[in-house]
Amino acid sequence: MLLTETLIIRKAEPQDTPAMLELIKELAAFEKEPEAVTVSLEHFTHSGFGDNPVWWAFNAFEGNKLIGMAIYYIRYSTWKGQTMYLEDIIITENKRGLGVGSLLMEHLIAEARKRQLSAISWQVLNWNKQALEFYGKYPIEQDEDWINIRLEC
User: Fold this and answer.
1) Which residues are part of the catalytic machinery?
2) Can you tell me the distance from the alpha carbon of 104 to that of 90, in angstroms, rounded to the nearest whole number?
3) Which domains does the chain possess?
4) Is 138 exposed, middle or buried (0-12, 13-18, 19+ CB in 10 A)?
5) Which residues, 6+ apart, have CB-to-CB distance to 15 below 8 Å?
6) What is the pLDDT along the chain (153 residues), one digit of tens a residue?
7) Residue 70's closest CA among 116, 106, 97?
8) Count of H helices and E strands in the chain?
């Protein structure tokens, strides 16, 4: 856990999930797809805190208010072994640009190293210049060779 005068970053807990889901809805609205969030609170909570969690997260709080989160899961690369997949870093709009994202990213990097994961990967929308600039501060490799493919079930 990281503590500054006004900011606490810690691992997500089950009681955080309602506020986390609200941040997810805020992100969907920012990405111009507010109706795309269809996961229920029950499913979201169970997926992170049930018998077999499939996601983990670090949450950033200012006082008792959730202002940011980084949600990830472990994926498997046949070439590299276990890696971390960063699903989202979300910072509430009025707290962006203040360093919260950087603190969350540092926690993710530390967690990946602790778990001895070979890499962290994620996606960024090509029009999200603020996110592209943020991630550009890290020694990243952008892959122009792969095309994202998805099948709705």
Assistant:
1) 135
2) 10
3) 2-135 (3.40.630.30)
4) exposed
5) none
6) 544 568 999 999 999 999 999 999 999 999 999 999 999 999 999 999 999 999 999 999 999 999 999 999 999 999 999 999 999 999 999 999 899 999 999 999 999 999 999 999 988 877 778 877 877 787 778 788 777 777 678
7) 106
8) 4, 6
